[in-house]
């Protein structure tokens, strides 16, 4: 029994060690990922359900690791946040996404197509965020009203006065702001009133069991009523089935995003989706 306990301990210990060294080497290669051009922006369409048109694309980052293959943000964004690398990575995402949206607008004749970009907490604490956004919009020639920045409730709630000031500056530029993963954080209704917010994105955890769980349906109904009452757009995220789409439509959720419409795809495949969306 004793020796088995020891083996377990050793096993446990080496598992932790290998996890730690995996993280270390991941962090190491994350430092070079940008200059080695290993990041790729995927795009997922947002649909206006009453017209069926794609009105917006959300930029979602992936990392094409030379040895480990395609890595999803859940695996490296926390690391990028901790190390501060998210600031330069985020800059690159913003620039790439804005340039891509401008190209779509011009070459496909879709002048009112928008792009949504996720902002992390760390980016939000940078004193030059407003300047950076201004500069990228200028460089890419994208009209500010076709850019939407997605922030989470925790960003909004952290240092609320500071956040409000920054959001006001961003809003004054004409850029839209939406609250991502709405309903999962600590958002206070007070801030919804005070912050210049354009849209609420209902977290996909509520959408997942929407058709099976009456609690989720009640929460979504309440979020939609709240959004409409405050004159905000509301987006249903993580829509995977026709049933979910139909129920969300009945609940008057006008914008939707999810695998049912399309997974996040490479720019060239997103271009095809946009062409199809336009010709319908
Ligand atoms: P998010 O902003 O909430 O993005 C939605 C996530 O749900 C994406 O995961 C997307 O691929 C996934 N998704 C979309 N439709 C469905 C669906 O129908 N069912 C399910 N189960 N999932 C769906 P992804 O791309 O892995 O990104 C995860 C998170 O990483 C994002 O969550 C966002 O918080 C973060 N992230 C992604 N790109 C960036 C970035 O450029 N910067 C920052 N700071 N964060 C990013
Ligand atoms: Ca998002
Ligand atoms: Ca979300
Ligand atoms: Ca999220």
Note the overall shape. Answer: globular
- Count every helix, treating DSSP H or I runs of 4 or more residues as helices: 12
Number of separate strands:
9
Please state the CA-atom Rg, rounded to the nearest Å. Answer: 21 Å
Q: What are the low-pLDDT stretches, counting only 5+ consecutive residues below 50?
A: none
Could you spell the SSE succession in H and E letters? HEEEHHEHHEHHEHEHHEHEH
Largest beta-sheet details:
8 strands, mixed, barrel
Bound molecules: ligand C2E, calcium ion
Task: Report the β-strand fraction as a percent range.
Answer: 15-25%
Helix content range of the residues, please?
Answer: 40-55%
Class per helix and strand makeup: alpha/beta
Give the averaged pLDDT, no decimals. 92
Protein name: EAL domain-containing protein
Organism: Hassallia byssoidea VB512170
Domain EAL: 23-278
What's the gist of this structure?
The protein has helices at 2-33, 73-83, 86-108, 121-124, 129-140, 153-157, 160-173, 189-194, 204-208, 214-229, 242-250, 267-279; strands at 39-48, 53-65, 69-71, 114-118, 147-152, 176-182, 199-202, 233-236, 255-256.
How would you explain this protein's 3D organization?
With 280 residues, this protein is α/β, with parallel strands linked by helices. The chain contains twelve helices and nine strands. It has helices at 2-33, 73-83, 86-108, 121-124, 129-140, 153-157, 160-173, 189-194, 204-208, 214-229, 242-250, 267-279; strands at residues 39-48, 53-65, 69-71, 114-118, 147-152, 176-182, 199-202, 233-236, 255-256. The longest helix is centred in the N-terminal third of the chain and has 32 residues, at 2-33. The termini are far apart. One calcium ion binds at residues 180-181, 201, 203, 237.
């Amino acid at each position: 029994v004793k020796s088995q306990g020891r083996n377990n301990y050793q096993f446990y210990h080496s598992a932790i060690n290998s996890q730690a060294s995996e993280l270390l080497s991941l962090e190491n290669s994350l430092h070079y990922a940008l200059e080695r051009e290993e990041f790729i922006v995927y795009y997922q369409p947002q649909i206006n359900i009453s017209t069926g048109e794609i009105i917006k694309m959300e930029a979602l980052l992936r990392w094409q690791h030379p040895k480990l293959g395609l890595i999803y943000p859940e695996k490296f964004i926390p690391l990028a946040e901790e190390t501060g690398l998210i600031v330069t990575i985020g800059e690159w995402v913003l620039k790439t996404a804005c340039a891509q949206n401008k190209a779509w607008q011009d070459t496909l004749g879709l002048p009112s197509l928008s792009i949504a970009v996720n902002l992390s907490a760390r980016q939000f604490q940078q004193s030059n965020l407003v300047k950076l956004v201004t500069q990228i919009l200028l460089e890419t020639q994208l009209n500010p009203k076709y850019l939407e920045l997605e922030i989470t409730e925790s960003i909004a709630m952290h240092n609320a006065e500071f956040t409000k000031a920054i959001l006001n500056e961003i809003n004054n530029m004409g850029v839209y702001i939406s609250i991502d993963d709405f309903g999962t954080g600590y958002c206070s209704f007070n801030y919804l009133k005070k912050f210049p917010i354009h849209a609420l994105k209902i977290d996909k955890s509520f959408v997942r069991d929407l058709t099976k769980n009456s609690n989720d349906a009640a929460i979504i109904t309440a979020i939609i009523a709240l959004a409409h009452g405050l004159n905000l757009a509301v987006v249903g995220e993580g829509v995977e089935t026709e049933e979910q789409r139909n129920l969300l439509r009945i609940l008057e959720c006008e914008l939707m995003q999810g695998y049912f419409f399309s997974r996040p795809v490479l720019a060239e495949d997103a271009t095809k989706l946009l062409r199809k969306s336009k010709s319908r």
